[in-house]
Amino acid sequence: MTNIEKYNNAFVNSLEITEDRLAGLKYQDIEAWDSVGHMTLVAAIEDAFDIMLDTDDIIDFNSYEKGKEILSKEEYGVAF
Amino acid sequence: MNLLQGKVCLVTGASRGIGLATVKRFAEEGAIVYANVREPKNLDKYYDELSENNSGSVSSVYFDVRDESASKKAVQRIKCEQGRLDVLVNNAGVMKDALVGMVSSFLMKEMYETNVQGGVNMIQFATKIMVKQKSGSIINLSSIVGIEGNAGQMAYSASKGAVAAMTKTAAKELAAYGIRVNAVAPGMIDTDMYRSIGDERMKEQIKNIKLGRLGKPEEVADAILFFASDLSRYITGEILGVDGGAVI
């Protein structure tokens, strides 16, 4: 499975949305991506890539695109 | 009874007192215990003995709870080795006394860094694993002075009051994931930390304990065990006094 597939799966499974809605998706755009959903999403992403996000990055993670930017940081090393 | 058979537990501040008693109690009940101390001490041999003589096992994990990065690495290590974390005991703490007029911002910061922020860090990292497994028990160490206040302990009691508040808040947030969060609030317990107040003051304070004696670290460890085990499976957001009926 490619990294983008893993990343998308984390969103689809955690927030129960279809893949075609991911582009442009922002925190709290949908009911499922509330603060509780955010924790579930972060846990799924951490599990998928075997990483542990810093608290500041969890706070900054406010959109589908921003998440990719954060994971691309050197400390996490996820290439898309 | 093996109340914690196979449960993976992390106990911070496990070099002495309540933390060390908790590690021993957990090992007796079959837990896989990660005992946190700040730096390598002569405890590894004792931990090995606990592993040999009990159904559980004990491993050292060295980090300072004030160091966010080191705390994170320690939890990652547990995740890597065990794939789960069932119990977190936030026990690491410091106590320094000062009268109201003598409480410096440095002292407040020092108390909060370990007693509050250190605990928050640990909860954040531990819940990353617990959220996924949809279960877990977190036990924070508050204090009778955090609930009742105590002359000469503004900084310490404020930090322990904060621990009680964060316990109730975390319990409300994390219940959705099957994670329970409780606290024990020890009274006057016979530990090195407590004895640092001096003999005179200690004698005075014992007069205010209904059961007429200091508590033992093992008696606090038993309360922590209760919250760690399934015996308390329907309890969250509670602050349990372990104080022999002490009045402050």
Features of the shown structure:
heterodimer, A: 80 residues, Non-ribosomal Peptide Synthetase Peptidyl Carrier Protein, Chain A, 4 helices, B: 248 residues, alpha/beta, Rossmann fold, seven-stranded parallel sheet
Q: Count the beta strands of chain B.
A: 7
Oligomer: heterodimer
Low-confidence stretches of chain A: none
CATH superfamily of chain B: NAD(P)-binding Rossmann-like Domain
Catalogue the unreliable spans of chain B.
none
What is the name of the CATH architecture of chain B? 3-Layer(aba) Sandwich
Helix content of chain B: 40-55%
For the largest sheet of chain B, list the strands in their spatial order: 3-2-1-4-5-6-7
Order of helices and strands of chain A: HHHH
Number of helices of chain A: 4
Shape field of chain B: globular
Order of helices and strands of chain B: EHEHEHEHEHHEHHHE
In helices, the fraction of residues of chain A equals 40-55%
User: What is the first-to-last residue Cα distance of chain A?
Assistant: 12 Å
Shape of chain A: globular
> Structural class per helix/strand content of chain B?
alpha/beta
The major β-sheet of chain A equals: none
- Total number of domains of chain B: 1
Question: Structural class of the helix and strand makeup of chain A?
Answer: mainly alpha
Architecture (CATH level 2) name of chain A: Orthogonal Bundle
